[in-house]
Amino acid sequence: MQNIKFADVKLCSMISKIIDEDLIQQAKEEILNANKVVIVSHVSPDGDAIGSSLALCQFLTNMEKEVTVIMPNAFPDFLKWMPGADQILVYAEKKAQSEAAIANADLIFALDFNVLHRIGEMGTYVADSKARKVMVDHHLEPGGFADVIISYPSMPSTSEMIFRLICRMGYFTDLTKECAECIYTGMMTDTGSFTYNSNNPELYIIISELIKKGINKDDIHSKVYNNYSADRFRLMGHLLSENMKVYPEIGTALLTLSSAELKKYNFRKGDTEGFVNIPLSIKGIIFTAFIKEDVGMVKISLRSHGSFPTNEFSAEVFGGGGHLNASGAESYVSLAETVKKFEDALPKYKERLIEEMNKSK
Ligand code: 5GP
Ligand code: MN
After folding, report:
1. What is the DSSP letter of 5?
2. Contact in structure between 71 and 40 (CB atoms under 8 Å)
3. Residues with C-beta atoms within 5 A of ion ligand 2
4. Could you read off the pLDDT of 298-335 as tens digits, one per residue?
5. For residue 294, how far is its CA from the centre of ligand 1 (angstroms)?
6. pTM reported for the whole predicted model
7. Closest-lying ligand to the alpha carbon of 319?
8. For a designed S-S bond to 180, which of 42, 58, 213, 346 qualifies (C-beta 3.0 to 4.6 A apart)?
9. Whose CA is nearest to atom 23 of ligand 1?
């Protein structure tokens, strides 16, 4: 796998060298020097967390590395079809095994998160491990816990970064169909099926290459998005008819769900996926929040159209973070108090919300 092939050179000439050459060489050296590799990603793993992790896992396994993928907690059923998903260790369910793998690793890849608290309790074990650490991520303000930090917040997904990394290291020819399926899934889910952060023409060059590797993109879309339970849609019906508050004068909408409501509709992980985006389809709505009771905390998801900075709102109001148009936070007061905090913060953002709302007309 060491010789650079013509196909790699050709592909690299079609996509720009966004990732710094030094970082590519450093990551390659870390890989070549390692045998036991652990790949970790963030709490409540999404399509990009799982996609980037499994893609890298496929690639490193083909390089004959001993690879363990560990997620802090369970991931939704609609990602379970992905190649290698059945091998993922869930830390919350297998703590001793996960901690041993982290402690014994030569190399840890930290994918799709910027700071160690995003991987929960597992973060201390990663910090304490003697393993070398490589971060590949697209969130703002990367923390300094890794030896090699490949952080490009302008990238729409970590999965795309994994594609770029593999190609630039000279292994495009070796990229398998299974690896391509994982990369495509992450690229698709982190761009809302190519409806936001998706105007870079190179995205479509990459998709074209993934299709040439044998993926069926229509099938992947169907596996991810046509895989829900009837309960999810009953819950969605309830949410939209009973619990959607619209503030039309500031282009904002709020969705809430209590744990009693979730229980009533037999909530399972993944059932509320995408709910936060729904009000963005309402004419004039440019900012949405979804506030949901979770185990031991209240989870906040924020989304926006245009340049309204949800991550700034999230950080200032709830101590959270994320991207401009998609961010989140955790709250440790009641659902009602969290909602009050959200509503009390709106007047401060009124002018910016109105400005963005007017732009969208
Ligand atoms: P989601 O709403 O899908 O849970 O999260 C959207 C984005 O917000 C994530 O990709 C992540 O960047 C960020 N995010 C979500 N939850 C948190 C959190 O509790 N803290 C921080 N700092 N960022 C979060
Ligand atoms: Mn991501």
Report:
1. P
2. yes
3. 48, 112, 158, 190
4. 999 999 999 999 999 999 999 999 889 999 999 999 99
5. 14
6. 0.93
7. 1
8. 213
9. 321
